[in-house]
């Protein structure tokens, strides 16, 4: 189903982002996909096999140079859907983390995301047309002991998405926040969290998570928390004191060797 519309998906080499790109391909979008490592070309090859036009960009979206590199490849083409999904986690106690790693996490999850949304979003507002999907997380609803910086970045994104959506309410540009719970991707290994209850727990299928996010974006919804238990958890997060939530998070995210 060709639509001649363009979707830009970041973090599309694996996990939720790759599955979001597959959803966009099935929806008939041409794709610009981006990730930091050469594996983005392998993802592009698999997506092209679905009879989809794909441009792949290898760029570090934790840097302004990386964001600009992606924007150059997009060029003057109007972006119909922006799926700002690239992100990383970082486990362990904050004071035990390498500060450069923590800073890069903020640069990628927050600064790189809003820089891209700012540039692409202005074009959408001018044309009065577009869909933005931001991958936040249910992690944004609770203080993330032993993953403190990550949960802070996701609290930012969950909050930012809702605010931007409100600012654009008189336009035909929609902003949707995808808020998954633990999902079976490379995320926990990359965050050095395999030795935690989160790391060892049963997780959602990234294809299911992505499909729910894509459908919510296409329906112009404000957001979607994927999975029944995650919906229950986020509902309770509004009632349970933050001190208790922080302790609950510690039990899930503290490395087993230290708990
Ligand atoms: N898995 C979960 O439990 C979970 C739950 C809630 C929310 N999320 C969110 O879902 C999103 C996708 O994560 P995932 O679970 O699918 O993990 P993933 O498989 O590790 O995917 C992360 C993607 O982001 C890309 N990326 C990482 N650093 C980058 C950088 N500096 N510049 C450009 N791209 C970069 C990765 O590409 P490279 O390999 O090239 O770096 C990869 O394509 C993230 O925002 C994450 O916070 C995940």
Give a verbal description of the structure.
InterPro entries: KR_dom, NAD(P)-bd_dom_sf, Sc_DH/Rdtase_CS, SDR_fam. There is one protein chain. With 259 residues, the protein is α/β, with parallel strands linked by helices. The protein has a single domain (6-258), classed as NAD(P)-binding Rossmann-like Domain (Rossmann fold, 3-Layer(aba) Sandwich). 48% of the residues lie in helices and 14% in strands. The chain is built from ten helices and seven strands. The protein has helices spanning 15-26, 40-48, 64-74, 99-127, 148-167, 187-190, 197-200, 206-218, 228-237, 242-253; strands at 6-10, 30-35, 54-58, 81-84, 130-135, 173-179, 223-225. It has a seven-stranded parallel β-sheet with strand order 3-2-1-4-5-6-7, with helices on both faces. β2, α2 (40-48) and β3 (54-58) form a beta-alpha-beta unit. α1 packs across α8. The longest helix has 29 residues, at 99-127. It is globular, with a radius of gyration of 18 Å. The termini are far apart. 48% of the residues are buried. The model has no long low-confidence stretch (mean pLDDT 96). It binds NADP nicotinamide-adenine-dinucleotide phosphate. NADP nicotinamide-adenine-dinucleotide phosphate binds next to α1 and α6.
- Major sheet attributes: 7 strands, parallel
- The arrangement of helices and strands along the chain is EHEHEHEHEHEHHHEHH
Name every ligand kind in the structure: NADP nicotinamide-adenine-dinucleotide phosphate
Radius of gyration: 18 Å
Shape: globular
As a percent range, the share of strand residues is 5-15%
- Overall strand count: 7
**Low-confidence blocks of residues:** none
Q: Under the CATH scheme, which architecture would be assigned?
A: 3-Layer(aba) Sandwich
Spatially, the strands of the biggest sheet line up as: 3-2-1-4-5-6-7
Q: If you average the pLDDT, what whole number results? A: 96
- What helical percentage do the residues reach? 40-55%
What is the structural class?
alpha/beta
Q: Whole-Å distance between the termini? A: 52 Å
| CATH class membership | Alpha Beta
